[in-house]
Design goal:
Helix 4 runs parallel beside helix 5 and helix 4 crosses helix 10. The chain has an 8-stranded mixed beta sheet with strand order 3-2-1-4-5-6-7-8, with helices on both faces. It has one domain: 3-Layer(aba) Sandwich (Rossmann fold), CATH 3.40.50. The relative contact order is 0.15. It is α/β, with parallel strands linked by helices and about 325 residues long.
């Protein structure tokens, strides 16, 4: 049972290195703070080093005197494959171990735009950027002693997603929520397929897990209305967040649970157990039938390797 699971039940993380994307705000900020309180060295992978540094200062100021965690702020723009590759390269140069990779950062329901590499932004940032990052860091995770985890943040909105392999970049037809749903479905297809491929490669100590925060009040909800210049949508979102959302600290619990709880299993999906999976303590959830379509997962993997140029070498992985 996880009915009462909180950050107080997180195991000690001293000596462990954790990467959190989007660590300077929202769920990433809350998760970073919790990891640091438990003694982890957290690498804050942020698009803006300035905002990341301000967030790190805030977290350090609030840490108890006895907390042994440490924070590093590094630039990682998931909208640029070059930035992702540079982040991973320098991380491997400076660290000989990585215990948890939290693929957390994302954008939601924004007007259509393109990344530095020409990908539709929601698909490019939410999925392709994390696909590339994980591919660059997977050997470091596998080579690290003990159990290591890749935790990929999805959303309940994955259930409205549909993979359009003929128009992945949504150039022919674009809707904010349709593109967001596709990107969140892609997160789950990727997380499950990664676990299958790790299992097939006889890698037992590194697992791939998915999670979702339920409905949590973060700045994520406001970016779309702001970029659209819609004061009405911004106001409606503020009302909805006030009335229905749980806090960002509560929304971070499924990611923290997936990253640290002993009972977590590879290929599983964790989220709030409360009303309509929107709030409450974390527990194991069922995702949509579309997210379990192995043929779609294989097709997405093929497209992702082609688009990013990042090919996973499972044959070369060693769990020794």
């Amino acid at each position: 049972m996880t009915a009462s699971w909180t950050v107080d039940q997180m195991p000690d993380c001293a000596g462990r290195t954790v990467v959190v994307t989007g660590a300077n705000s929202g769920l990433g900020f809350e998760a970073t703070q919790a990891f640091a309180r438990k003694g982890a060295r957290v690498v804050m992978a942020c698009r803006s080093v300035e905002r990341g540094g301000a967030a790190a200062d805030e977290i350090r100021a609030a840490l108890p005197a006895h907390a042994s965690g440490a924070l590093e702020v590094r630039q990682c723009d998931l909208a640029s494959l070059d930035s992702v590759a540079d982040f991973a390269r320098t991380l491997r140069e400076d660290h000989d171990a990585l215990h948890v990779l939290c693929n957390n950062a994302g954008v939601m329901a924004i007007p259509r735009g393109e990344t530095a590499d020409g990908f539709e932004k929601q698909f490019g940032i939410n999925h392709l950027g994390h696909f590339a990052l994980t591919g660059h860091l997977l050997s470091l995770l596998v080579e690290t002693d003990g159990e290591t985890r890749v935790v990929t943040q999805s959303s309940g909105a994955h259930s409205m997603g549909e993979m359009d392999f003929a128009d992945l970049q949504r150039e022919e037809a674009y809707s904010r929520w349709g593109a967001y749903g596709q990107s969140k479905l892609a997160n789950l297809l990727f997380a499950y397929e990664l676990q299958r491929r790790l299992t097939d490669a006889s890698v037992e100590e590194t697992i791939s897990v998915a999670c979702h925060p339920g409905y949590a009040a973060t700045d994520l909800q406001y970016r779309g209305p702001r970029e659209s210049g819609s004061l009405l949508r911004t106001g409606l979102m503020r009302v909805a967040n006030t009335l229905f959302a749980q806090s960002a600290s509560r929304g971070a619990l499924p990611m923290l649970y997936a990253a640290t709880a002993p009972a977590v299993e590879g290929g599983a999906y964790y989220g709030p157990e409360g009303f309509m999976q929107m709030r409450g303590a974390p527990g194991r959830q069922e995702s949509s039938a579309a997210s379990r379509e192995e043929a779609d997962a294989t097709e997405l993997w093929r497209h992702s390797e082609t688009l990013t140029g990042v090919e996973y070498d499972f044959a070369g992985l060693s769990a020794d």
